Structure formats: C-alpha cells, structure tokens
Fold these 4 entries.
Entry 1:
Amino acid sequence: MNESITPGSSGTTGEIVVIGGGTGLSVMLRGLKKRTDRIAAVVAVSDDGGGSGKLRNDMGILPPGDIRNCIMALSNTEPIMSSLLTYRFTEGELKGQCFGNLFIAALNRITGSFYQAVRYMSDVLAITGRVLPVTVEDVHIEAEFGNGVSVRGESKILRYKKMFDSPIKSIRMIPEKPKALDDTIDAIENARMIVFGPGSLYTSVIPNLLVDGIVDAIERSRAKKVYVCNVMTQDGETEKYTAFDHVKAVFEHSGEGIFDTCIVNNMAVSGTLAERYAKEGAESIDIDRERFREAGIKLIELPLLDENTNLARHDPDKLAGALMDVLEGDLNGYDLFGENQGRAVQNTY
C-alpha cells in the first residue's frame, strides 16, 4: 500500500534528507535540529527483533523502534513526556517493551495507517522536521553469506554471522522492490542535501536503498550527497571493514557514485573504551585513503567523537557542523583526500 496524507503535514522543499535508522541516525538528528528545521529523516522498517519485533509479530504493524528514536531525537516537548515515551517496562507481559512503541501501535490501530500514526505522534511531540518511513509495506531483509547460505530476518542475520563467522556478501528485500512512500520520494527529489548513515550498514542504511524508487530519486535529485561513516566496526555486520569497504558495500547495493563525499572520524578512541569494544568484536574503522583517492570521492576527516559519553559515538554538534559546512560549500582548508595524515586543516570544531 502506498499512501500520502495531509493532516499535520506539509511538503517541504530544500530539506536535509537523512537516510538510515538505528542509534546513529538519531544521534545525528539531535545535532542537526539545532542548525535547521528543514530536516526529513527517512527510516528503514525492516527490523524484526526486540520490542519492535514482538509488536510486529503480535499486531502485524511495521516495527516502530527506529521511527520512535528519530521522533524523540527531533522532539521539542516537556521532559516528563520524553521520559514517558522512552520508558521501558521491566516486568510482566510488557517486560522489555517501550511505551513509545505502544503509543505508535495504538495510533496505528486508531487511524488504520502506520504513516498517519507516525505523523500524529510527530505532531504531539512538536518535532523539528519530519520522520518518514521509507515504505509502508511489510518488508524483511535476507542476507547471502560468503559460504552461500541465505538467512532471512534482521535478527537472524546477525546471529548467523556471529555463529558461523561468514561475511555478508549481499542483502535483498523481501518482497523485492517494495513501493516507496510518495512523501519519501518527494523529499529526496527536492532535497538540498542527502546524508547516508551513520548506522548499521547492512540493516539500517542499505535496506532503504533496496526500496523501489529510492535510488532513482536520489540519482534525479540535484542535492549534495554525503556518506557518514560509522565510528566503529560492528560485530555481526562489518568486522574488519575499512572506511572504503563501507562505501563499496553501499555502491554495490545501489550504484557507483550515488554520493561523492564521505565524512570520517579520525579521532582516536581511548584505550579503555577501545578495549571494551574489542571484547564485543568491534574496533575503530581504518581509513584507507588511497582507495578514496582512486575512486575520486572527497574524504573529509575530522575529530568527531563525543567526549562526553562512555560510548564510541559521533558528537551530534560536531557532526552537524561538518554537514552544514558541506551543505554551504564551506570546505576551504579541509583535507579532502587525507594528504595531511587525515587531519582537517581548520574547522575542527
């Protein structure tokens, strides 16, 4: 089913369109909303694990978790409301379930439309910008591994990768080529800038590009197109991946040159934090500069780590600042191909 609604929404041209899902996307949105109110977050809806997966199985609705995280990141509401919507039950049949997910599920039942549920929740929280499901069709992802085995379902893919240590070769959408939401296509076509990631490469970013019409809309768009590489590799998806390995995977599932600029963190993760991540099978991403140079992709390296958290994540304000510089073409002094050992000459925020 393809749908477009009018209550509480108005199409906005010239937005920054961000494409992805998961924690990485919501972190970036917290920084961007301080810089502009013209934001459209395009979010994957193929998750089948955790509380979202349970609601999907029990109620037949699309997974609300990543959508909820993006709405909360863009929200402008009282702290008690934020606390309520992020509250996670700790006992009983609702143990592990987030109230915000239940809120979207209830709105879905009342309105009869997942997209309307997203729109009305966005209105209640007075969000900056828009949150758009990439599609409203019931979709799953299937991965083919290097050993020839295919596994369907996001949560099963991650478990299989960890169990058999076989690299992900490619992913595809089930059913193939689901229809994109009209409003999502419109946002991409009219964007000023399109940002891919950050987020889980194979389960948050790439799935959006497998929805019918998305890649074509990106190619038609005259927007600036930027990929934000993750800070760390991810156990179960991208072990040993370099920065360009991430880029290559996106191109293989969409098309060469779908973006021409890549932003990468070059700030070292502290020893203690690095050791903790190593126990989880994750490490800092190596920046293979020569491959970017050969591909003709602008490589912008900056110290983008959030130093106020015990997690290896982007600082939302630093990342937003870098993206706005790209948008406005203010790249004077940036080291675009790593010629200064990966350090930005200026604008290090």
Entry 2:
Amino acid sequence: MSGFSDYGNYDGLGLGELVSKGDVTADELLDEAIARTEKVNPQINAITTKMYDLAREQIKRGLPDGPFKGVPYPIKDLALHISGTVLSNGSRAYADYVSDHDSELVSRYKNAGLVLFGKTNTPEFGLVTTTEPQLFGPCRNPWNPEHATGGSSGGAGAAVAARICPMANASDGGGSIRIPASSSGVFGFKPTRARTPMAPDKFDSWNGFSISHAVTISVRDNAALLDATDGPAPGDMYQAPRKERPFLDEVGRDPGKLRIAFSAVSASGSPVDRECIRAAEMAAELCAELGHDVEEARPTYDSAMLMRSMLSFMAADIAWSFTLREEQLGRALREDEVETITRHYIEIGRAQSLFDYTRVKYEFQKGVRDIAPFFDKYDVFIQPVLGTPPPKIGYIDMMSEDLATFGERVGTHSPFTALYNMTGQPSMSVPLHWSKEGLPVGSMFTAKYGNDALLFRLAAQLEKARPWAGKAPPICA
C-alpha cells in the first residue's frame, strides 16, 4: 500500500492544497499516516485507538472542500464524541463506552476536510501533567522514550513531534495543550475561553477552564484550524469576543512594537529548573532583538487561593462525570476501574455543597480580577511553560497513595500554565529551546483576554526568526 513520500515536507494547509489541486489523493495521505503510525507508535504509544476503516469510509463518502481537505488528523480521547467509537477518557470506567453522536467540534473538523484516523493517549479524564493512564499505558517522549511527553494531550504532542501527522486535536484545562507542546517541541495554542464549542454535551468544562484546540508544527496551521472551528454553538451561555479578521490573516502581519513583560519566578514559590528559566530568558532576548520593549515584571495575586478554587471546580466536574457513568452502568464503580488520584477528586467533589461551590466561585472571581490590570500595562507576558524539563516516566503517578508527594511533584512540574485557564486568556507554547540533554523546553506567551490575534502575529514572527519545523526527534516517522 503506497502513500505520499513527500508527506513530511508539508504542513496541514500544504497537504490540503495538494489534495484540492488533485496532485495527491486523500487515500494516499491516509496510507502515509497509517504507515507512519505503525512505524513509530509501538515506541511512543501516542495513538491508542486506530480508526483506519472509519477514515476510509469518511473519504469514500466524499470530503468537503475545506482548507484541510484529506489531511489526517487524530482526536484526543477525551470529551469529544465521534459516533460509533469508544470514548474512554483515558479511564477503565469508560473503556467500553461508545458514542452515538458527533460533538459539534468534531463536525467542524470534518467540514474543514480533516480525516479522523485515530484517537490519542490521555491520562484519566485529563487530570495530570503526564500521560500514563492505567488503561493504555504511558505515552513516551519521541526525544527520549524514558521521559514523559506531558499531559493531558500527551498523545497529541508525541504524534505531531514524531511526524505521524502535522497537527492533532488537543485540549487544555490547566495547561494540557501547552504542557505537551513544550515537552514535545511543537507549537501549542490555547485560545480564549469559549473560542471553540463543547456542544452538544457541555457548554463549558471545569467552570470554563477547559477548551479544545490543537498542537501543530506550523503557526499557520494552528491559526487556520481555529478559523475553521471558531464560534459558539446554539445554546452556548457565553462566547469569546469576535475576531477582527481571520486568524490566518494575522500570520505574517506586523505585530507592531509590543510591551512585553517576562518572569521565570513561580507564583507558588516552587523552584524552577535552570533550563526552564533559560527558555524564558531566551524568548525575552529574542523579542528584544525583534524590536519589542521587554522588561522583567510579573503580576501579584493569591496563587494558593486560586489553585484551591481550581481544585474545587475540577473535583465537582469529575465527580459528576463518574456519577453519570455509575447511572449508565446501574452500579457503583469498582476500585479497579478508577485510578487512585481520580478517586480522591471524586470524593472531594461529592463532599461539596452548592453553598461551597458558590463561595469558591466568588473568591475565585475576585482573584482573577486582580490579574487583569497587569495586562492593561503589557501586551504579552513571557514565562516558562513548565518548572522542569519533561520528567521520567513514573515520576508523577496517578496510582500513588502519597497525595502530598503527588501534589508537590505536579506543582513543581507545572506552576505556570493553569492561571490562564482560570482567567480565560489566550496562551501559547513556542518551541524555542532544547535542554543540554536534548529535551524540548517551551516558552509561554500570554496576551489579554480575547487577543488571540496578537499572539498569532507574534508567533509567526518568532517562527520566522527561529524556525523549528526542521527539528525532529530521534523517534521520527
């Protein structure tokens, strides 16, 4: 079965253009994606559900003339429904749950011409900064398989880094697009809250912290994909501010002289690895070289209170998800069906009252408002994505009974990203630095609420100045 040998030389838009012009067929691209999956997936465990037959049926039915016509695209195995497929959410409790409909975002992907050929590895319900579920086993980093690829979109990051596909669906509730993008050396963009829909099953997740989008090799793919999926669905309770023009048109547009702050200090006081500090410093230096005004500064806010609030919201959402599953099964979940840390979240969620939830929400809203003035002064804030380079497999263990150590390790690994899920701001991980050990270490750029366009303009400028598409890991298709 032959594919398209030049597949790796194109991004998603490039492949879609070839299909639209008739220079290559969607079947040839799918053949190549399958061949690449079979070649490298046994080493990294990025694709956990293969949907090759469904992908062929999708092509056979005819593809819309969207910007990504015929481009192979995997979906993260969390929250998004694809009719007739198992949606496991990385959990043994959902291992045989079959969706009977497509999520709105999945429909938009199909309308853009994307061919959905598999699902990617994720930790149980996306609850942790590594991807090592008991259901599927660990996803391994293509740069060094002894190390993790981040979470919770770890399979997506690994699949794109290993060049199985030029882009992959991902979602971000506390950093889960940016963390694997940083860990895998690819570009990850978390849009403004509600920029993409969660219909018809939810109008938000984790109190609006979580949002779906993608990790990609190129900036322009990421922008064009957001154009294809941007906008509310009927019944949504709120929506992101409207864009001025297509995000793809922002790529290559002059960002102007920006006011940029940078800091590598963790608000929680946790230590930050020197490689991560260097990533932020190098990003700031590059921005200064590009003509922007850069200075060291950071906002002040009650980090501990915000993280307690986030835990409450997450726990309530997770408890509800597992309660629904028990109602579907008509029985209580067995101990071996739920991971230890997840069960802890469920217990916290079920113990909360509506009064508790309302109190936490008001405290949280006040804390978030304390941050807003900082982004009136600065256009962009640069930080490390993570507090450490990618840890080794097993270091962060969802089956641990030692909750204090688990919390400390997660907090030290990822002290930066979750804030912007709480504020709803657009935030991106840009692959500008690799450690002495050869592991990618991303730099995080965050803009004011609703200003996704500015980040795309800056990202394209950074991509041109320090191209990363040619950097490929040792495990590469």
Entry 3:
Amino acid sequence: MIHPTAIVHPRAELAEDVEVGPYSIIGENVEISRGVKIDSHVRIEGWTRLGENCRVFSFAVLGEAPQDLKYKGEPSELIVGPNNVFREFVTVHRGTAEGGGRTVIGANNLFMAYSHVAHDCLIGNHVIMANAATLAGHIEIQDHAIIGGLAAVHQFVRIGAYALVSGLTGVPRDIPPYALAAGNRARLYGLNLIGLKRHGFSSETILHLKRAYRILFRSHLPLSKALERVSREIPSFPELERLVEFLRTSRRGVCR
C-alpha cells in the first residue's frame, strides 16, 4: 500500500492498511492509524498522530515545526482524531512548549484547500474551514463551527460552537456560540439561523436564543449587566448555559 517512490522512515508506525501515494514523505516519529489514505506529494513530520480513516490530499503538510520565533526545536505534538479530511496544500503545525506542546484536532472535520492551522490550536468536531481560511496560534474552534474562505483569526481567539464566520473576515475577538459574524473586522449579524435549523435545534430553543441575543448584543448594556438580565428573564437551558459560560470566560473580549 506504500508507493515505491514514497519515503517512510523505518521508525514511523503505520497500520497495515495505510495507503501512501507517490513521492510522499513520512517522518520518524509519525503514527498513522488504520484506514488512512495519503495521496501523492504529502509531507507528515514531527511527533504526529493521525487517527483512523483520515484522508490527506496532495501537497498537504502536517506536523511541521511551528512558525513561532520562540520555538527552539523542542519535541511537540500534532494529535489528529478520526475521519478528518485535509485537502490540497493544507498546513497544520504542531504545538510549542509555551502553548502546552500540542496542536489537537478532533473528529470529522473538513479542511479545504490552502487552509492553515497554526501551533497550539484546539479544533473540535465537525468543523469546516473553507479555502485559505487561516488560524493564528493558540486558537480554539468549538464543535460545528464554520470558518469562511480567506477569513483570518487572531491568536488566542475562540470561535464558539455552531458559529459561522463569513469569508474575508478578520476576527480579532471571540465569536460567541450560534452567532453569525462578518466584516473587515468581525461584527455580529445575528444568529446562525440556517445552521441551527440544519442541526435540528427546536423552534423553542431558537426563539429563546434570539431573546438572549437581543439582550446581550443589542441592548447596549455592559456585558455584565446584560448577563444578569438574561439570567432573570430567560429560563435556563443547555444551549443558553453554553453561551453564557462562553461569554463569562472570554479573555480577549467578545465581538458584539
């Protein structure tokens, strides 16, 4: 299953059914699980673990050294869960000692062509990064978020679950769960209603989230006061608790 022109280090660990295409390079400390298919001209380096049934298209580079001037060559990891798709020219870098030493990607994510995941990022499950979407270091992307094409996310920013960041958007602050963000510098434009409906959110849940959104982001109240008002006026439910917790734990500030 390994093409004769591929270079696989003898100490790399590959499951028996892994496919490696022509001219691909697999480094010394790489571990690749069963069902993985690697196309031609792929490079996988560093202390990288690739989960089951991932697909890596041509010219993708996974697990290379981070683009961080503080990085001095110390061992660090890229951990990738199952069923991820990395399209052409995707780059994903491993972590740094300062950021915990690992970049972690969950399951069932799609990284479209030329998208980039920098060092120490934490990517959840069912995330989509469209063509040339770019993450700086230390970013957290929660489950089911979508990052549009050519969007760029500042380091240490968080993108909440089920949020949608439009293409060509610069993201300097956290994007709350369920929100729709767009603009040269991201602003919120309401809930990601189409996404919520597609994922089976009930009409009642969406209605209450709309009420919370109006209070939090349209009332012109300071965020602390808006959170107090939400707790008084809207009965608690899991999706609202996730939103409130996200806002309360923001360190970079929240786009409003």
Entry 4:
Amino acid sequence: MTGIKPYDPVVQTYIKDCRSGAGSPPNAITHPPKQGAGVRYAIAQGPSMVPHKADRNTIEQALQFNFSTLQTACSMASQYNTQLITFPELFLTGYEFANGDQINKEIPVRAAELIEKQQYPERISKIAVDLKMTIVCPMPYKGKDPKGNEGIYDTAMIFQPDGSQAMQFKNHLWGIDERQWFRYPEYPELSPSNNFQNDTNAFRVHLINGFPVGVGICYDAEFPEVARCLALNGSLLTVFPTAAPEGMLPGQTEPYPDIALHYIPANALTNLNFCSYSNRAGEEYDTEGNPVLNYSGNSIICNPYGKAMVAAVSNEDCLLIADCLRKDIKNTQPADTDYLINRRLEIYSALTRKKAPFPYGKQYTYAPQQHKDPKQPDKS
C-alpha cells in the first residue's frame, strides 16, 4: 500500500513504581496502580486507513488495517502493564469519509453493519480480556440511542477486562459532514436515583481499575460543559478520542486551534482531574493509497495542574503511557477554595435557557439539532 505504513511508535512514559511512588524502572513497569488507586493509561497515536467507497471489500480492507494497528498497540502497551488504552475518533473505520460526498455518505452505514457482522466488538473484547486491559475504541454504530431512536451514531466502545462492554455517544457533531453522516443522540430524563454510571446518562463515568473515567469524543472536548459535567459525575480522568486536523480548513481565516495546548490543560485545571486528547499522526490514507486528511498528532495526557505528563513530541507514531493516580490529585487553590465546590448553581440559568443574546449578534434561539445545520446569528 503506497503511503501508509504499519504502526511503529516511539514510546514515551511517565510511570511510577506504584508500591512506593518511586519512579525507577524496571519496578515502575511491573507495579501499576492498584485497584481504586489510579490507572496506567496509554494513548495510541498512529496511522489510519479509511474506505474510499461504500462496497464491502473496500470497507473490510480499512477495518483490517486499523484492527491490526489496534492489536499492535495493545500488545505493546501490555508490556508496560497498561490498564487503559484509547484510540482516535472513528478509529476502526478511519474518519474522513470523503467529505460527505453523496455516494460516500453510505460508508459509515455500511461500515457499522460490517463491524457487527464481522464481530469486531467481540474480537476487541477478547483482546481486552486476554491482556487484562480496558480498550476505548471509537467506531460508527448502527442501532438505538439511549432514548430508543434508530440511527447511525459516532461512538466510542469501552471494552473491559471482565468482558463487559459500554458505549459513549458523541454529543456534539462537528461540521456539515458529521451532521450528514450521523444522528445526534437523545437521552431520557434522568431519575433522581441515577448513580452516574447508567447508560442513559449523557455524562456517565466508567470504573476502570476501580478508577472513575469519563469519555467524550473530539468536538466534545471544546465544550467546557462536557468536561465539567463528567467531573461533577465523578470523573477523575476524562479522555477525549479525537480526529483533529492540521492546517487551514474551508471557511477558516486561521488554522484550527490546537485543542491539546488550550482546552485539555484548561479542562484538567478547572475540573481538578486528569484529561487527555487521543489523536492520529500525519496523513490518513484511503484504501487506494491517496492521502485524504492530515492530522495534528497532538495527543497529550495532562495532570490536574493542566501540565503535560506525556505529549507527542512530533507528528509521528507514538505510544504515550502515564500513571494517573488518585494521590496526585491535589488542590491547585488555597485551603477551602475549590472550583467544583465553589460553584453557584443559583446564578447559572443562562447555561440552559433557550434564548441567548450573543455578544456578536441578535438574540439566538436554540432548537433541536437533528440532521440540520444550525442557523447562524446575524452578525451585522
């Protein structure tokens, strides 16, 4: 295959001997966090293949390449006793479905059907069980959202070492293409007894090695409400699989902002938890060997001070591994000062009202966003 090469990562680590807190190998590798104390977490930043058309053979070719990358990354991560690994957005199929072309709008539909038929979830689950590792693998999903609506959804599947599986839906769809490919998920009203780990909760948390982890997808990271809601539901590590492009995109006057340098550190700092961004490296190629989109390769894992524990040094294949420990979550503020506790619920009604007088336009009215491009405010 011209252009695309198998995953061959540089390994970067920030790990500790979790018996004592000392950080000198090889003891650090052989002693990951104990149950409930934290999680040894890896990000696989690497290559990606995407189908160039909606036929079965082409889609299967991309699935096989990306699944092979997952196998390699998980195997390498297991050598460091990794307990959690995350992959980029829509990792199993590739992300860029030919810019929403009329024909290729069918690719995520056909891919989701083939993923189920070829039992990829079961195959990934077996890896998670065999390696005793939780795997967060994003992929398109054809089925029902938590409210029972049928559709194609942008999701991340969470495969646990005990064989259980869970799903996180992408809640904010980015750009015209995504709104053509996918449906917005809807949720039933939560009951007062919700325990924040219910799959009807848009911001549920998952216990991974007994450590609460929240999951968002790509554009979700750019909404502070998402990281905040996950933290309020107990997340001590919030992970954002992404497909962040590099350079200028149509309609932009400046390159896309580097989310890893701005939002991820801010999410960690303002929510007093760990936060990450899991991106691709370099070009994504289609199944004919043509480059279709270039990615920023800016994967990162930040501590609660908003500082990088590990970050991709360059836009290349890498495997980032860091220990996210409960004991390292220390208040960044003076005593009795805490972002989460000092919130004032009684004055935040502007966050949920349906009409908003934006600073740059006339009053805007929010409406359900189902397969529609939001109407932009008048900025004149």
